[in-house]
Specification:
Length: about 350
Amino acid sequence: MEINLKDTLRKLRRQKNVTQEALANHLDITPQSVGKWERGEGYPDITLLPKIAMYFGVTVDELLNVDDARIEESINAYLEEGKQYDFDGDTKRELELWEKAYKEFPNDIRVMVKLMYALGDDKDDVPLPEDKLNRIVELGETILATSTDREYRESAIQCLCFAYRDVDEEKALHYADMGGDFITNRVNLRCKVLSDEKGVEACQEYLRDLIEVAANTAAAIPNKKRLSYEEMIEAYTFGIDLYKRLYSDGNLGFYNCRVAYNYYCLAYVHAEFQNTEKVLEMLKECCRYTFEFDRVRDQDFDYTALLMNRTHQKKEDVSKNYTGNAANLRLHVIEDREVFDYLRDDVRFQQILDELREHAVE
């Protein structure tokens, strides 16, 4: 537990309008000693703590900021446990964890944000049940009303927007309009300001995010309305081409899962039109990128493509909302989709499922 004396001591002195010299005289020490304590360069002798606390009319725990330190220690423990559930895709236990944390720390913004995400993170809850929606709205509005922290506010806005997306488009747009402008956002502006190596790194990270946004946006188009066969194929192929161009050396890391998903979507579209050869071709590609994602997901590594060679993947930053590995998820999705029923007796289709079973981890 980290003890924070220096900030508390300085704050108490200023509140009481007491100089370092006056406090030093009271304690029969030098003013330089008080200065060192307030700079965090040392601590008073333990025998002096009760005398200092009594001088300012506080307890020793309050002087040492022990209560705040204990709170930080507890919340950090929740955050570490939550990371593991996030990494494992255990959305049920993650929600239970943040419900427990919220009961203990109902006014902590970090806990409120984590609970909002946990409430909306169950992929089977579409649209969100009314009870979960109402809680997300209550938490989000509280954060927007009380917090000035940009990241927490942006997180609350995102959760609120997504919560209403399939329930009330007008309200979802209300929150969407609170977001920053795409052109003048902080990341773009930092890219324009920074130079040399920091500037290159910032540009690469922004380019990575732009490609993901562009690919995801293209893949979302067929979900908005029924498109022609050619339009749907183009939407998913566009995203694949973007990723392959950016990660031109084939080292896609985390983004193997994005490419795999787009290949699955292509297989689905081709299956709707019973274009068997294309379905099988797309499923094989989907499996190839799925297996590669599962292979690299638990690793820290550096990207190596020329436009991405300052970016990195940290395993603790990779999360999911399903249990088991990606091969297991893809296997169950393909087995459950009626659109593939006409292929169930095809030996080649069964070989693809068998390969998925070999790699699947529950």
